[in-house]
Write a structure and sequence with these properties.
Length: about 60
């Protein structure tokens, strides 16, 4: 579950960096920051949903003959 929080925090850091870049007028870096923030927050959201549904972290052991 720790990886979900790390992804979320990384997304928030990139979002903050994008806001700072927009305030300073560096719009090229703003686009990159928004893209990376979206990617990290989406991956955190997808991992959270998978964990919530009980599908995350399951190990399926098969018997081998």
């Amino acid at each position: 579950m720790r990886h979900i929080y790390i992804r979320g925090v990384a997304g928030l850091i990139w979002l903050t960096a994008a806001i700072v870049c927009a305030a300073s007028g560096n719009f090229q870096m703003t686009g990159l920051g928004v893209f990376l923030a979206g990617a990290f927050l989406y991956s955190a959201s997808a991992a959270w949903k998978k964990e919530k549904d009980g599908k995350g972290g399951q190990v399926i052991w098969e018997k081998r003959s």
